[in-house]
Write a structure and sequence with these properties.
- This protein has helices at about 5, 35, 125-140, 165-170, 180-195, 245-250, 260-280, 285, 300-310, 330-340, 345-350, 360-370, 390-410, 435-450, 470-475, 490-495, 505, 545-550, 560-570, and strands spanning about 15-20, 25-30, 45-50, 55-65, 90-100, 105-110, 120-125, 145-150, 160-165, 170-175, 200-205, 215-220, 315, 320-325, 380-385, 420, 460-465, 480-485, 515-520, 530-535.
- By secondary structure, it is an alpha/beta fold.
- The chain folds into three domains: about 5-140; about 150-235 and about 360-540 and about 555-573, 3-Layer(aba) Sandwich (Rossmann fold), CATH 3.40.50.300; about 240-350, no CATH class.
- Strand 13 (about 315) and strand 14 form a beta hairpin.
- Helix 7 (about 260-280) packs across helix 9 (about 300-310) and helix 13 (about 390-410) packs parallel to helix 14 (about 435-450).
C-alpha cells in the first residue's frame, strides 16, 4: 500500500475529533465543532490513529452522537449544571478491531492488541476510504473457503464475503420477521454451495417453499393419496427405524396409571420380535450387541398380538381361573395403536411398501438422504408438508437422528460433512417449557447435534421468524447470526442475548432494516456488518401475496367441494 493509500485513513476533511475517554471496548471522542459533528453517523466506521506505530489504526463503529447544549460547545472544560459531566460535542464508538498497513501487506483483525490513547486522532471512514477498507476485508478472506453473500450497506460497491468453514462448522442462525427475505437468503446460500464439487446440505422444508429449485434433489414424505405410488422421490420411514423412545411417544400416554407396565411389555415384545428376525437371518454378530433402539425390522401387528394376549390373559388360581397380571391394562394402548396404524395420514410410517420390511431397506433410506455423488444430489430438500402436525417434530427429529448416527458410526476417513438447513425451526426446535413428549424428544435430538455434531461433521443452519421461541440451548451454540429485520421486541431481545455486549448498539437497528438487508455477526466475517443480501437466481415459492392487488383482479370461483375433499384426505394433491 502506498503512502497516499495510507493517508486515506487520515484525510484532513474526514477528521472527527480526539479521544477523551477509553475503556476496554469503547471510546468517547471529543468533537470540537458542530461542523465536524455532522460527519458522524450511527453505525458508520471510524479509524483511530494509534500513536505506537505510523500505520496502525483502531477501527470502531459509531454507537451514539451527542451535541452540546451550551453555546460554548467548543470547549470541553465547562461542566453541565445537572450531571457534573462536561457539556461537549461527543461521539461514542465501539472498538471492533485493528487495521495494520505496512509497506507490503495489509491486514485487519478483530483482536485488540493496542487500546487507543487519550487525544488519539479519529477520522470517519467514508467515500473512497470506506470502499478501500471494505475491499480490504474481502481481499483478506481466502477465496477458496469463502462465498459472496451480498454488498456492504456502507459501501454498495464492495462485495461482502463469508468464510464457509467457520460459518457452517460452528453452526449458524438466520432470523427475521416474515417477509424480510429469509427464504431468498437461504436460496442464495444454497445456490453458492451447489457450485462446489461435493457440497452436502439437507433442507427441512415444512411448507414446500423450495420445490422450485431445479438444482436440488427433491424428496417428499408421502401423503395419504401417494402410499401406493412407486415414485423414487418419495421417502417412506417405516416405524421400525424409530428408536424405543420415539415409538413409545407415538403410542403410550405417560399420564396413564398403567403406563410403566405398558412401556415394559411393549419393549419386551419389540425386542423379542427383533431377535426372531436376527436369528432367522443368522445375524449372530448383531445378536450379541443389538438393543431395542437398533433399527431392525419387526412386525408391529405381532407385537400387538402379544400385548393383546397379556391384556386378556387368564391364569390358573387356587379357586380356578383368574385375571392375569396385566389383564385389562393395555386396552387403551391397543386402541391407540390400531388407530394410528390404520390412519392413512401416518401411512409413510405404518403402511410403507412391502420392500420397507426388508433388513436392507435402512441402507436405501440412508443413501437417499445422504448421497451427494449423483447429479442434483448435493442439495437435498425434504418436503414435510404432508406430515400431520401432531407428529411433525418427531419425524423431522427422526430424519436428523438417523443421519447423525450414520455420521457417528462412519469411520473418520470416510466421513463427509453435512449441514442441516432447519427452516421454520421454531416449529420443532422450540423451548422445552410446556412441550409434549413428542416435541421434547425432537428438541433433545437437535440439542445433541448442536453440542456434539461438529466432531462428526454435522452442522446446523437454523432459520426462524420467531427466534424467541427457539431453544436457547441450540441458539447459544450458533457462532454466526444473520439477522434480517425483526419487528417484535421479544425476538430482538432473544437475538441480542447471544451478541457481545459491545455490539448491542449495532443490534438496535434490527427493527429498521430494509427488506433483504441483514446484520451479520460471528466468526465467519471479519467485521460485524450490515449487508444487502444477494437475490438468488431461482427464488423459492415464498413471496408475500399482494392482497390489495389480488382484490383488484377478476377471480373465478374456487371448487369448494374439491377443497373440502382435500381437507378430508389431508392432502392438497
Amino acid at each position: 500500500m502506498t503512502t497516499n493509500e495510507k493517508r486515506l485513513f487520515e484525510l484532513k476533511q474526514n477528521f472527527l475529533g480526539t479521544v477523551n475517554q477509553v475503556d476496554t471496548r469503547t471510546v468517547s471522542i471529543f468533537v470540537n465543532s458542530n461542523e465536524d459533528l455532522l460527519k458522524a453517523k450511527i453505525g458508520h466506521l471510524i479509524s483511530i490513529k494509534l500513536s505506537s506505530t505510523i500505520a496502525k489504526y483502531s477501527i470502531a463503529i459509531i454507537e451514539s452522537i451527542r451535541k452540546a447544549t451550551k453555546s460554548n460547545s467548543g470547549t470541553n472544560s465547562e461542566e453541565s449544571e445537572e450531571g457534573g459531566e462536561p457539556d461537549i460535542n461527543s461521539v461514542k464508538a465501539v472498538l471492533v478491531g485493528e487495521l495494520t498497513i505496512p509497506e507490503k501487506t495489509k491486514s485487519f483483525t478483530r483482536s485488540l492488541s493496542t487500546i487507543p490513547e487519550i487525544d488519539s486522532r479519529c477520522y470517519v471512514i467514508v467515500d473512497n476510504t470506506l470502499t478501500k477498507f471494505m475491499s480490504l476485508l474481502v481481499d483478506q478472506t481466502d477465496s477458496n473457503v469463502s462465498f459472496e453473500i451480498g454488498k456492504f450497506s456502507l459501501s454498495p460497491t464492495a462485495t461482502a464475503s463469508i468464510e464457509g468453514n467457520k460459518f457452517f462448522q460452528r453452526h449458524a442462525a438466520l432470523v427475521g420477521s416474515t417477509g424480510t427475505g429469509k427464504s431468498w437468503t437461504v436460496a442464495s446460500i444454497l445456490e453458492k454451495a451447489d457450485k462446489l464439487k461435493s457440497s452436502n446440505l439437507i433442507v427441512f422444508d415444512l411448507h414446500g417453499e423450495y420445490q422450485s429449485l431445479s438444482y436440488a434433489k427433491h424428496i417428499r414424505i408421502p401423503g395419504p393419496d401417494e402410499l401406493e405410488k412407486n415414485d423414487p422421490h418419495l421417502l417412506f420411514l417405516p416405524y421400525w427405524v424409530m428408536n424405543a423412545e420415539e415409538l413409545q411417544t407415538m403410542f403410550i400416554d405417560r399420564s396413564e396409571f398403567t403406563a410403566h407396565n405398558q412401556v415394559m411389555a411393549f419393549q419386551d415384545a419389540v425386542i423379542l420380535k427383533k431377535r426372531e428376525l436376527l436369528e432367522k437371518l443368522k445375524k449372530t454378530e448383531i445378536l450379541d450387541n443389538f438393543t431395542i433402539d437398533s433399527p431392525i425390522p419387526f412386525n408391529l401387528t405381532d407385537v400387538m398380538d402379544l400385548l393383546r394376549d397379556l391384556n386378556e390373559e387368564m391364569i390358573e388360581g387356587s379357586r380356578g381361573l383368574k385375571q392375569g397380571t396385566f389383564f385389562g391394562q393395555f386396552s387403551r394402548l391397543l386402541v391407540r395403536m390400531r388407530s394410528k396404524i390404520s390412519d392413512r395420514r401416518y401411512g409413510f410410517l405404518f403402511q410403507a411398501p412391502a420392500e420397507s420390511k426388508k433388513y436392507t431397506y435402512m441402507g436405501k433410506i440412508v443413501q437417499k438422504l445422504m448421497d451427494f455423488t449423483d447429479e442434483h444430489s448435493q442439495i437435498k430438500i425434504i418436503d414435510f408438508s404432508e406430515v400431520p402436525e401432531d407428529i411433525l417434530p418427531i419425524i423431522v427429529g427422526l430424519v436428523a437422528r438417523i443421519i447423525y448416527q450414520i455420521q457417528f458410526w462412519t469411520s473418520a476417513d470416510e466421513r463427509h460433512p453435512i449441514v442441516f438447513v432447519c427452516d421454520e425451526a421454531h416449529l420443532y426446535i422450540s423451548k422445552k417449557e410446556g412441550l409434549n413428549p413428542i416435541e421434547k424428544r425432537a428438541v433433545e435430538i437437535f440439542e445433541k447435534i448442536a453440542k456434539e455434531g461438529r466432531k462428526y461433521g454435522v452442522a446446523l443452519f437454523i432459520i426462524s421468524q420467531r427466534p424467541s421461541d427457539v431453544s436457547e440451548s441450540i441458539l447459544s451454540q450458533c457462532n454466526n447470526i444473520i439477522s434480517l429485520r425483526l419487528a417484535n421486541n421479544t425476538d430482538q431481545l432473544a437475538v441480542k442475548r447471544f451478541m457481545p455486549e459491545s455490539l448491542e448498539g449495532l443490534m438496535d437497528s434490527l427493527p429498521i432494516l430494509d427488506i433483504g438487508e441483514a446484520i451479520v455477526v460471528g466468526d465467519s466475517i471479519l467485521l460485524p456488518s450490515k449487508i444487502r443480501i444477494d437475490k438468488p437466481t431461482q427464488e423459492p415459492l415464498s413471496s408475500t401475496i399482494d392482497i390489495w392487488t389480488e382484490w383488484s383482479k377478476d377471480q373465478s370461483r374456487p371448487d369448494y367441494q374439491k377443497i373440502v375433499e382435500n381437507l378430508r384426505k389431508q392432502s392438497r394433491k
